[in-house]
Amino acid sequence: MKKIDGKLVAEHLQKELKEKVEALQKEGKNPTLAVILVGDDPASKVYVGGKDRVAKKLGMGSLRYELPTTATQEEVLDLVEKLNQDPEVHGILVQLPLPKGMNESEVLEAISKEKDVDCFHPYNLGKLFQGDETGFLPCTPNGVIKLLEYYDIDVQGKDVVIVGRSNIVGKPLFSLMLNRSATVSVVHSKTRDLAEKTRQADILCVAVGRAGFITKDMVKPGAVVVDVGINSIDGKLYGDVARDVEEIASYMTPVPGGVGPMTITMLMDNTIKACR
Ligand code: NAP
Q: In CATH, what number is assigned to the domain containing residue 103?
């Protein structure tokens, strides 16, 4: 089994991104990401901190706006609108989940489609669905595609099975794979004979959110396995795919160090694209 090393690929891409940032700065532009964090969810704080660190590493502008859990929908919408109007801000990200009672889709749709670097706006998702990839691409699924490209794993004509149909991972990954002429199936909690379907996959992508959900008997020997899952148990991270699947996979992403490092990198890529 060959490891798909997300840390290595992310570092390689980040080098290229740093050069793009420097070139833009020579033209007097500074790609800047604004992150809005509402409430005090500890995991969200860690994610936002990670984004801030990578933005700074690439020499980009990184702004953080923290609002209390008691903030109203209007206050969040006002801040989004202020950032939409700010020419110094190129990308806006609202860290999810928002506190209970807030209308997430209203907030996400309020972000200008030109600054929608997390790609949650129906406009950018709609373009992707139509096969037009000139808009922003969703960070995690695009990270998966970049990993496969780096290792010269062609998806055209391959049987790709995606486990999970979330708006963040499964559905946009379906579009990206279909746009590349893979034969794609998406399976989920209501799928019958799930293992029979996953065993058909040349490329198996898993985003379920359950540690070790995919076991060896559910994978075709020689398949490429991409594990998107991140499950924290007693402070340790586990993927959705059992570790011993690596004994039969041809390529596999580890957790941590697989898809995870690619997500933030693709977010920075989108922010630089927004600035350009
Ligand atoms: P999600 O919104 O909870 O969706 C999970 C999907 O898995 C749903 O479509 C669900 O099916 C399906 N599912 C759940 N239990 C199942 C079962 N027993 N059999 C078959 N399908 C089942 O999760 P998500 O946001 O896509 O995230 C999935 C995982 O990826 C999580 O571990 C998350 O932390 C991780 N993640 C990682 C990154 C990264 O940067 N690496 C980014 C995003 C997410 P139904 O639709 O039928 O309920």
A: 3.40.50.10860
Closest alpha carbon to 61 in 104, 95, 91: 91
- Residue from 51, 127, 158, 171 carrying the catalytic annotation: 51
Q: Is 186 in the pocket of ligand 1 (CB under 6 A)?
A: no
For residue 179, give its domain range.
139-260
* Predicted local distance difference test score (pLDDT) of residue 229: 97
pLDDT at 247: 98
Does ligand 1 come within 6 angstroms of the Cβ of 100?
Answer: no
Known catalytic residue at 95: yes
Q: Residue 12's pLDDT is what?
A: 98
* Number of compact structural domains in the chain: 2
pLDDT < 70 positions in the chain = none
Residues 145 and 254 in one domain: yes
Residue 51 is among the residues annotated as catalytic for this protein:
yes
List, in sequence order, every beta strand (DSSP E) within the chain.
Answer: 2-3, 32-38, 61-67, 91-94, 159-163, 183-187, 203-206, 224-227, 231-233, 236-238, 251-252
Residue count (the chain): 276
257, burial (CB in 10 Å: exposed 0-12, middle 13-18, buried 19+):
middle
